[in-house]
Design a protein that fits this description.
Layout: E1 4-11, H1 22-37, E2 44-48, H2 52-56, H3 61-68, E3 75-79, H4 85-98, E4 104-111, H5 118-125, H6 141-156, H7 164-174, H8 188-193, E5 196-198, E6 201-202, E7 212-220, E8 232-241, H9 256-269, E9 278-280, H10 286-295, H11 304-309, H12 326-330, H13 337-350, E10 363-370, E11 375-383
Parallel strand pairs: 2-3, 2-4, 9-10
Antiparallel strand pairs: 1-7, 1-8, 4-7, 5-6, 8-11, 10-11
C-alpha cells in the first residue's frame, strides 16, 4: 500500500440552493478541487450521497455527476453510509489510490435537503435508523439523540446548559467561514432559551439540514509534482460499525463504532490521542459531540461535556473541534458532511484557516457518523 495525499479541495456554501441541482452543486465542488490540484483529469470518481433517490428521484447519481463534470467514461460509483456517506466515499477513494489501482481519484459529497418539506426531510433522514424497529414507530434522529441525552444527563448529573459550549464554539468559528450556513455567533443565554425540538434537545442543540457539495482530489504521495507544498497526507482511513437500533447496543451511552474506528486510525497513523491537534467530529447534536470525544479517547467517560464548559474545544484550546463551524453552524448536508469535515482539516494543516487557524496544527482527525453511530468513518491527516 502506498501513501496517499489530498492535493485539491473544493466547497460550495451550505445553504438553500434553490437554483442549483445536485449535479450542478457536485460539479462546482469538483471543478474547484481540480483547479486547486492543478488537475485536468482523474481516473475515478466516488460520490457520497444519502438521499438522491428519495428526495431527488436520481439513483444514477455518480454517472450523472461524472458526465456533468466533464469526466464521462471514467469509473464513477455512489457510496452509501447514511450521514457518513461522504466519508465512506473518501475511504473507498483512499483504498483505490493506496492499492495502486488508480493514480488520481476525485471524491465528492453532495446533498440537497431544503426543497423537501420538513416532514419529508425528517422522514428521509430517519432512514438512517432501523426501519423495522425505529423509523416505523415514528421516532426521528432527534428523538433518538434526545433519549440518549436524557439518560446521559441522568447518569452524570448534568443539565442541558452544560452542553451549551459546543454550540457556542461552533457558531463562533462559523462566523469566519465563508461556506457556513449560519455564520454568526450565539450566546449561552440564547441556547438556554431556544425552542425545544425533542426534549431535552432544542433548536440550538441540533445541526441544520442544508444543500451543499464538497470535493477532494487524491493521488499517490509519489506523484505530487507541483502540489508538494499544499499536499496533506492521509495517515489513516478506517471504518467500524455498531447495531443500527439503539436498543440493541450493549451500552447506549457509548459510541462503540466511533471508539473502534478512532483507535484503528490511531494504530494505522502511529499516533496517540493526545497527539491530535484538532478533531472535526460529527456534531449533529451536542450529545454526539460529548460521546465522540469520549469514544475517541480525548475525554474520560462522563466528562466530555466539561471540555465545552471549560473552553478546551476552541481553536486555542486543548482539543479544538468544529473549527470551521462543524455540522452545527456550517450546516449538515448529510451525505456531503464527511467531505466538508476533511476539507476543513486540510485547510487547518495547510495553515490557511484564517481567524480559525489552530496554531502549529500538524495532525488532524475527522470522524463522520452514519445515523446515531451505526457507522463511524475516521480519517487522520498529517502534513507531509
Amino acid at each position: 500500500m502506498r501513501d496517499v495525499a489530498i492535493i485539491g479541495i473544493g466547497e460550495t456554501k451550505v445553504k438553500e440552493h434553490w437554483n442549483k441541482s445536485l449535479r450542478e452543486l457536485a460539479t462546482e465542488a469538483i471543478l474547484a478541487a481540480m483547479n486547486d490540484a492543478h488537475a485536468e483529469h482523474v481516473d475515478a470518481l466516488y460520490v457520497g450521497n444519502m438521499l438522491s433517490g428519495v428526495l431527488g428521484g436520481q439513483e444514477q447519481l455518480a454517472a450523472l455527476v461524472a458526465d456533468a463534470a466533464g469526466l464521462r467514461g471514467i469509473e464513477a460509483l455512489k457510496v452509501e453510509a447514511a450521514n457518513g456517506a461522504g466519508a465512506g466515499a473518501l475511504h473507498m477513494a483512499y483504498l483505490a489510490v493506496a492499492s495502486g489501482m488508480y493514480d488520481s481519484v476525485a471524491v465528492v459529497g453532495v446533498e440537497k435537503m431544503t426543497e423537501a418539506s420538513n416532514c419529508a426531510a425528517t422522514a428521509a433522514a430517519s432512514m438512517a435508523g432501523d426501519a423495522d424497529y425505529e423509523a416505523m414507530l415514528g421516532i426521528s434522529p432527534a428523538a433518538l439523540a434526545a433519549l440518549i441525552m436524557r439518560r446521559y444527563m441522568y447518569e452524570y448529573d448534568l443539565v442541558a446548559e452544560d452542553l451549551a459550549g459546543f454550540s457556542v464554539n461552533a457558531h463562533a468559528n462559523a462566523a469566519h467561514n465563508p461556506h457556513a450556513m449560519y455564520p454568526r455567533p450565539i450566546t449561552r443565554e440564547a441556547f438556554v432559551k431556544a425552542k425545544m425540538i425533542a426534549d431535552p434537545i432544542n433548536l440550538l442543540d441540533s445541526a441544520p439540514l442544508g444543500d451543499g457539495a464538497a470535493a477532494l482530489i487524491l493521488t499517490g504521495s509519489d506523484r505530487l509534482n507541483g502540489n508538494r507544498a499544499t499536499a496533506i497526507r492521509i495517515a489513516a482511513s478506517t471504518v467500524a460499525t455498531d447495531a443500527v437500533t439503539i436498543a440493541e447496543r450493549k451500552d447506549p451511552l457509548w459510541l462503540g463504532s466511533a471508539e473502534k474506528s478512532a483507535h484503528k486510525a490511531y494504530a494505522q497513523a502511529h499516533v496517540k490521542p493526545e497527539e491530535v491537534d484538532l478533531f472535526e467530529l460529527h456534531d449533529a447534536y451536542t450529545i454526539l459531540s460529548t460521546l465522540a470525544l469520549e469514544a475517541a479517547g480525548l475525554a474520560k467517560r462522563g466528562t466530555g461535556a466539561y471540555l465545552s464548559r471549560d473552553g478546551e474545544i476552541t481553536p486555542l484550546g486543548r482539543i479544538p473541534i468544529s473549527t470551521m463551524g462543524g455540522l452545527k453552524a456550517r450546516g449538515h448536508p448529510v451525505g456531503a458532511t464527511g467531505v466538508y469535515q476533511v476539507a476543513e482539516v486540510v485547510q487547518q494543516l495547510r495553515g490557511c484557516a484564517g481567524k480559525n487557524q489552530v496554531p502549529n496544527a500538524r495532525v488532524g482527525m475527522a470522524q463522520s457518523l452514519g445515523g446515531i453511530g451505526a457507522t463511524a468513518v475516521t480519517h487522520i491527516l498529517m502534513n507531509n
